[in-house]
Amino acid sequence: MKYAEKKFLISYGRTKARKLTPNQQRLFDELLPKIQISLKNPALGWQNQSAETWLEIGFGDGGHLAHQARNNPNVNFIGCEPFINGAVKLLREIEDNNLQNIRIYTGDVRDLLEKTPENSISRIFILNPDPWPKTKHHKRRLIQKPLLDLLEKVLQPEGMLRIATDDEDYAFWILKEFMNHPKFLWTVRSKADWQNDPDDHIKTKYQKKAFKEGRKNIFIEYKLLG
């Protein structure tokens, strides 16, 4: 699909960096097709069809997603990440730990969400999406009304959405966008809720790098009203 024909403005940067190593290429060629979600054939083939499904949007190097999958073996996970070098790192985690409860989508998550059944996801993670800090690029920010409409569609009533950002301006942007979308309730009770890592969270590679550079994650959690 040509760029001019895309329905959504691209909210992510490059899709590939360094050349894949031979082992990464093997994982990409052999393992990815077995667990990859296709928009033409979205059947997921879970071993546990009755389990909850959790979604991570932009999983980076896959560390957090693999952590959640290991600690929640009875949950089905969908990970969306267009950056191929990150996807192959998750593939290595899947192979090394024999994780059977992860499926991967390597395109724009909004295309996938349009085809995802209503009320089929119980938890969603969006950790450190690109803040597009320049004002002229704000239109590319992922978190705005078109995405929120899709999240409302796919989340189950009382479903949870966790967002993290180390960019204060983006945090205010996120809060404003959700204020205009009354189906989502911010679950904050105290400063600790946005200042501290959630109990089930694992620090990502990006989060550690940001901390060394003087930036701390802000966590914002919502639930979908029934």
Describe the structure.
The chain has a seven-stranded mixed sheet with strand order 3-2-1-4-5-7-6, with helices on both faces. The termini are far apart. The chain is built from eight helices and seven strands; from the N terminus they run H-E-H-E-H-E-H-E-H-E-H-E-H-H-E. It is α/β, with parallel strands linked by helices and 226 residues long. It is globular.
Whole-number mean pLDDT:
90
Number of helices: 8
- Radius of gyration (Å): 17 Å
Q: What is the global morphology?
A: globular
User: Sheet with the most strands?
Assistant: 7 strands, mixed
Strand content: 15-25%
Which stretches are low in confidence, meaning pLDDT under 50 for 5 or more residues running? 1-5
Q: What is the structural class? A: alpha/beta
Can you give the helix content as a percent range? 25-40%
By DSSP, the count of extended strands is 7
Q: Which strand order does the major sheet show?
A: 3-2-1-4-5-7-6
Order of helices and strands: HEHEHEHEHEHEHHE
Between the first and last Cα atoms, what is the distance in angstroms? 37 Å
Map the helices and strands.
Layout: H1 22-35, E1 53-57, H2 63-71, E2 76-80, H3 84-97, E3 102-105, H4 109-115, E4 121-127, H5 145-154, E5 155-165, H6 168-179, E6 184-186, H7 191-195, H8 205-212, E7 218-224
Parallel strand pairs: 1-2, 1-4, 2-3, 4-5
Antiparallel strand pairs: 5-7, 6-7
What's this entry about, in short?
With about 230 residues, the protein is α/β, with parallel strands linked by helices. Helix content is about 35%, strand content about 20%.
